[in-house]
Amino acid sequence: MILTSLLTVVLASLAQLTVAQVDDTQGPILYDLAHNATVITGTWTSGSKAVVTGEGFCDPVKLTFTYPKNTGVSFSFSGDGHYEIARYRFNGNGSDPTCITGVIGWVHGTYTLNANGSIWMRPFGDGFQQIQDPCAAVSNFIETYNETEYYKGWRIFSDPNDGPKLHLYQFDGSPVAPLFQVSTTPSMFPTKLLRNDTFISVSRRSLEEEEEDLARRDSSATVDRRLSISGVLGAAGLLTAAGVSMML
Ligand SMILES: *[C@@H]1O[C@H](CO)[C@@H](O)[C@H](O)[C@H]1NC(C)=O
Ligand SMILES: *[C@@H]1O[C@H](CO)[C@@H](O)[C@H](O)[C@H]1NC(C)=O
Ligand SMILES: *[C@@H]1O[C@H](CO)[C@@H](O)[C@H](O)[C@H]1NC(C)=O
Ligand SMILES: *[C@@H]1O[C@H](CO)[C@@H](O)[C@H](O)[C@H]1NC(C)=O
Ligand SMILES: *[C@@H]1O[C@H](CO)[C@@H](O)[C@H](O)[C@H]1NC(C)=O
């Protein structure tokens, strides 16, 4: 009983501390043990640990994802200022509960830990996401994702059971799900631009059809799928630039 109420008090003060520390109008932040029990470098993932950054999550050149078993989010940070994010989530629809949208996305770039405790993450330009929306006119499409992200604050606590636990607070102060460290060395793609193109949005179906067409034409089975897709994307970029919708 006493232990429980003590624990409650400790947890409550921890929560207060957490909230107080995400105030990015104060500073400079003291990056001490109380602020971050360890360094931020490594790979972090939420709850089920199904989503992890790095080569197993997607192929940024072919614009494909390997769907994880569960939803979640993962961040990696390198010691030399690079980050990578993998996300997979479902968004509900208040007006129509059967219209659940699936969003899976990947992005990488450079980050800075700022004196006021915030983090800027600036993408390279090759990030992409796939949206599956059964109720939309285009139910499955891929688009570029190149958002610069601002996090108001971060803390790393040492959880007695789960080890280091990273808390990130988004631009509006809302917390990202707690992230557990899966490795101290980051699991990341090469930290540079991995694809050059100007596409904005392309339907997944058109990519697959293009691949099938190519496979039919070239039965020698040495189909360069990469070329096929970048061909489609190149065309998509041009069409989009010309104001023609690529959505099928
Ligand atoms: C915190 O620092 C970053 C980087 O210098 C800056 O962009 C941001 O505006 C600062 N936040 C506030 C509330 O001043
Ligand atoms: C907390 O983070 C800062 C900034 O990266 C780092 O210099 C420091 O070593 C970290 N503290 C611990 C205890 O790892
Ligand atoms: C919710 O679903 C309806 C179709 O039933 C759609 O018109 C609307 O745009 C959806 N809202 C969101 C936020 O996705
Ligand atoms: C992506 O965003 C970064 C940071 O704002 C910017 O420097 C870069 O030019 C953008 N790339 C593309 C392809 O839009
Ligand atoms: C992107 O284009 C630049 C300039 O032409 C080139 O140096 C770079 O190697 C290209 N990157 C990729 C991943 O194709």
From TrEMBL:
Topology of the protein relative to the lipid bilayer: Single-pass type I membrane protein
Keyword line: Endoplasmic reticulum, Membrane, Signal, Transmembrane, Transmembrane helix
MF terms in GO: unfolded protein binding
Localisation per UniProt entry: Endoplasmic reticulum membrane
UniProt xrefs under InterPro entries: Rot1
Coiled coil, from the record: none
Any matching Pfam family: Rot1
GO biological process assignments: 'de novo' protein folding
GO cellular component: endoplasmic reticulum membrane
Chief location bin: endoplasmic reticulum
Signal peptide location: 1-20
Family recorded in the similarity comment: Belongs to the ROT1 family.
Record's protein name: Protein ROT1
Organism: Ephemerocybe angulata
